[in-house]
Amino acid sequence: MVNRVTKLGGTASGITVRRVSHGLMMMWPTFRRRLLRLYKAGIDALPAGAKAFLNSGEFYSATGGTENLELLSRFYAKHPEYVDKTFLSVKGAMVGGQIPDCSYVFIAFNRVFLELTDTSGAEGLRKSVENITKALGPHKKLDLFQPARMDPKVTPEDMMQEGLVALLKEGYFLHIGFSECNATTLRRAHAVHPVTAAEIEVSLWVYEQEQQVIIATASELGVSVSYLRPIGHGFLTASITSQAEVPKGDFRAHLTRFNEENLPHNLRIVAPILALAQLCIAWVAALGLHVIPLPGKVSRTLENLQGDIELSSEEMVELNALAAGADIRGHRYLGGSEGQYLFG
């Protein structure tokens, strides 16, 4: 294992993190003792002087609530020595984990049905960071906050200056990031205030022109890029070879790439690298010096860290060709209205 490190971007350029880090979406409180033990072991394996980059969400739970953050709060309360060993990034500002909540008009319209309080602009962001801060408790400060999706009703300049920068100056968090933004949005926001990280989905079955442009733009601007789902919702581990193997209640049952029509085709396309999770993570990590893969399978925390390996030039050529020619069928998500907020 190489255990490489990288510097973060923007205002966090002085912070060193391990390249292969941790996505916490699947860290549920039901299994908290085992989960915390595994993540603790991953942090213990840090190279000297580096932090573990942890990526959570205000809505990361089976209920769409803050259980994931509450679990982290209990971890830091029990192990305060790990506070400074981790860099915590949290996504928020979403209604039900689906819709950006910075839009006054949309939320006011839905209040009749969802009983939500009207918010607008910075107030939507404020309520989110206050909720996150409350769930985290007093033991760990939020290092980086990022809107989970870009609100089409708010310009990047206004979201940054009127919302995010104002909240940063009030001390709610230390750095600013974005999730599922496009290259133009990133450039416009970064012109107002340095962006530390942009989070996008990248894997051997999700590597299209949009991702490539964002990666190049982030490199130009000195912004880190964190890659969620580097092994494609676990698909590239060969853990699921038929829809019948999707566990009951697993959200992947609703993803169109896993349905009965598309799954057999997709399996044939990526057959050469199935069950080689470390190879997939290594390819993602090799896309730039400023990138941070975020595998999220808790039971494979230490195994995923083994993905920080050097690939030969021949291996990169072969994997690049596979990614470029992959005719993957189905949408990244459900194939519904949630797609309108991707690459905002």
Automatic annotation (TrEMBL):
InterPro entries cross-referenced by the UniProt entry: Aldo-Keto_reductase, NAD(P)_OxRdtase_dom_sf, NADP_OxRdtase_dom
A Pfam family matched in the record: Aldo_ket_red
Source lineage: Eukaryota, Fungi, Dikarya, Basidiomycota, Agaricomycotina
GO MF annotation terms: oxidoreductase activity
Natural source organism: Roridomyces roridus
GO cellular component terms listed in the entry, alphabetical order: cytoplasm
Origin superkingdom: Eukaryota
Protein name: Aldo/keto reductase
PANTHER family: AFLATOXIN B1 ALDEHYDE REDUCTASE, PYRIDOXAL REDUCTASE-RELATED
Residue ranges of domain NADP-dependent oxidoreductase in the record: 45-322
Keywords assigned by UniProt, alphabetized: Oxidoreductase
